[in-house]
Amino acid sequence: MTVELVSHSSLHTQRLGERIAREARPGDVIALWGELGTGKTVLARGIAEGLGIDEEEVTSPTFIILHEHSTGRLPLFHLDLYRLATSDLGSTGWEECLDAGGVTVIEWPERAGDALPPDRLDVRLAHIAESKRGVVLEPTGPRSRELLEGMRLDAPGA
Ligand SMILES: Nc1ncnc2c1ncn2[C@@H]1O[C@H](COP(=O)(O)OP(=O)(O)OP(=O)(O)O)[C@@H](O)[C@H]1O
Ligand SMILES: [Mg+2]
Question: 105-121 burial by CB neighbour count: b if 16+ within 10 A, else e?
Fold first, then answer.
């Protein structure tokens, strides 16, 4: 099961994040794949907003790999592994948040290598035009499949 759509604006991408958040349960992992500037952080902001976290709290982490937000319906762990050197893998302890009962959103998941959990919602963002992004949502296990199904992206108004 794969859902493909086109986002026509950053607001559209943000709304998609809110929709993910509404269905999210403790332990869910969302991996955001895509080149620089494709909208990973915009989507993460939407997820935050959907969990009831002030979206302005969500920034593009610079040297901080993990941001934890505890003011929403569920804790949100926002990880940006861009600056995680392969040599640091395993020593930063970022994987601990995967088992902490929150929602984990990972930018640059390719840096995680084998530490990426087997059941996660993969979201692939691609640049199409100035304000258009291709979005492919693909679950990799039973829980993420339920998450995607629960989003009902086939429903009118989705
Ligand atoms: N349809 C769209 N969806 C998401 N962002 C869009 C869209 N159209 C334009 N944008 C713009 O693209 C930029 C996306 O930036 P963002 O920081 O979310 O990217 P990123 O994938 O997190 O990049 P990085 O790899 O540097 O972290 C924003 O300036 C946003 O306004
Ligand atoms: Mg980002």
Answer: bbbbbebbeeebbebbb
- Provide the residue ranges of all domains of the chain, joining segments of one domain with +: 27-122+135-141
Q: In terms of pTM, does the model score above 0.85?
A: yes
Asked whether the beta carbons of 24 and 51 are under 8 A apart, the reply is yes
Ligand 1 pocket residue status of 45, Cβ below 6 Å: no
Rounded to the nearest whole angstrom, what is the distance from the C-alpha of residue 146 to the centroid of ligand 2?
Answer: 26
* Mean pLDDT, the chain cut into blocks of 10 residues (158 residues total): 96 98 97 97 97 86 78 94 71 79 94 90 98 98 97 77
Pocket test for ligand 1, best of 8, 9, 41 (most atoms within 8 A of CB): 41
CATH top class, domain 27-122+135-141: alpha beta
